[in-house]
Amino acid sequence: MSAFLSTVLSPLTRRWQRWLQSRHPVARVQKLTQQRVYIFLSRSGLAFCAMLLAMLGGAINYDLALAYLLVFLLAAMAVVSIFHTFRNLLGLQIAAGRVEPCFAGEAARFELLLENGSTLARQNIVLSYDAAQAELDVPAQDAARAWISLPAAQRGWLSAPRLRIASHWPLGVFQAWSYAYLGQRVLVYPRPEAEAPPLPGAAEGVGEGVVTARGQDDFAGLRPFQRGDSPRHVAWKAAARDEGLMVKEFHGEASLALWLDWDALPPRMAQEERLARLCAWVLAAHAGGLSFGLSLPGQRLPPEHGDAQRDACLAALALHGIREDA
After folding, report:
1. Which are the contacts of 102, defined by CB distance < 8 A and separation ≥ 6?
2. What pTM does this model have?
3. pLDDT per position as a tens digit, 22-69
4. Can the peptide bond before residue 302 be classed as cis, meaning omega within 30 degrees of 0?
5. How far is Cα 213 from Cα 250, in angstroms, rounded to an integer?
6. What is the pLDDT of residues 264-292, one digit of tens each?
7. Domain extents for the chain?
8. Is 2.60.40.10 the CATH number for 26-189?
9. What domain of life does the native source organism fall in (predicted)?
């Protein structure tokens, strides 16, 4: 029976999704116009209508004028609430906000920005991605933001599904809703190995001794500031002389470049195990202030240091073996 229902409903589901996609195309900023907001009775509204019918039946049976008055008063309030519920969403502007990379097994957070240009406050707006949701109010002529978390089960790109915007305000009898495709996606890094072995030694031929942090023994000069440089090394006197933001360079006794090599890992390790270990090593090398490079099949990142190098290596690990169109 379930297979039969799936065969029958599958074409209808695909047609429904295509219709929604055409009516709500992908855009980073979307405004809820009159053609994009829908309204119907909520579950509470259906129970409310059943109660009104029961009360009307009792009023007719006992011919009670006050019962008629109560039934028609409640029905009139419900009808008036249609306008308020619909207007609570009409004209709202939804925009895609920031997304921050995360590791597999964590929760990916998507930021949503709501802007209300009208003089009416918007109450009890519910934003939902499948089962994950957030509820907020948007003041009149103001903006508000919300964060929705989705589980990131595996590495690679995680795209946010269709966003649903809904409201039951003010009585909960009717529900207004709309959809938005904002095209948000977040990069999910591999989960680091829990108990990774120590970092490997320096590459053969690079130098002697152990791998240490970037040298800080002898002053070697100034260079332009780069993202990831420590504020402690900034030449503030040079900046005060309007010479630009410069960073002090030091040479140490054993400042060696560390290579994190895919091929140097044990052959028995599976692909995801290799990525997990390399991810743990990238984090350890960055935390230690080392200059490190990453070697993957078909990709090689030269040794650098700082946040930019860490992010580039983690991104390469996250997308290893994954086609961009996938």
Report:
1. 108, 109, 152, 186, 188, 189
2. 0.74
3. 777 888 999 999 989 999 999 999 999 999 999 999 999 888 889 999
4. no
5. 11
6. 999 899 999 999 999 999 999 998 888 99
7. 26-189, 191-214+253-326, 216-251
8. yes
9. Bacteria
